[in-house]
Design a protein that fits this description.
About 35% of the residues lie in helices and about 0% in strands. The protein has about 130 residues and is mainly alpha-helical. The chain has a domain of about 80 residues. The protein is globular, with a radius of gyration of 16 Å. About 10% of the residues are buried.
């Protein structure tokens, strides 16, 4: 997996951000949100993912190492169940776009997405279909 491209240097350049989002499928801005707010949300998300077999139990949970045997995609039942749990059981997830050093984040019209684990499809032994 390639490292994420940091877009901090172009945050005030809407056209370049749009091009990067179109090219890469994400915008990563280091330090946009406070780590002390994100870490508890990340760990709870990883707990849910681990319960569903998405996280390799041979590593510490905090490392977030994927178990490729648990790989699933939308609209597969396992994927949908985990996403439902994320939205229902992790209220801090909903607050992420609204809180940044005490106030709303100015995303300048760009969708804000948090990627905790990025996986490459390798097939799925626990899902009904291979991706």
């Amino acid at each position: 997996m390639r490292p994420l491209v940091d877009s901090s240097d172009i945050m005030d350049k809407g056209g370049e951000l749009h091009t990067r989002m179109s090219r890469d499928g994400y915008i990563f801005v280091r330090g946009l949100l406070p780590k002390d707010m994100l870490e508890p949300v990340r760990l709870r998300w990883l707990e849910i993912a681990a319960e569903e077999g998405w996280v390799d139990s041979d590593h510490p949970l905090s490392e977030g190492i994927a178990d490729m045997n648990g790989f699933c995609v939308e609209p597969q039942e396992t994927y949908m169940r985990v996403m439902y749990r994320l939205y229902r059981e992790v209220p801090g997830f909903h607050a992420i776009p609204e809180i940044s050093q005490g106030g709303p984040i100015n995303t300048r019209g760009i969708g804000l997405f948090s990627f905790i684990v990025s996986l490459e499809p390798q097939g799925c032994s626990k899902c009904s279909k291979s991706p």
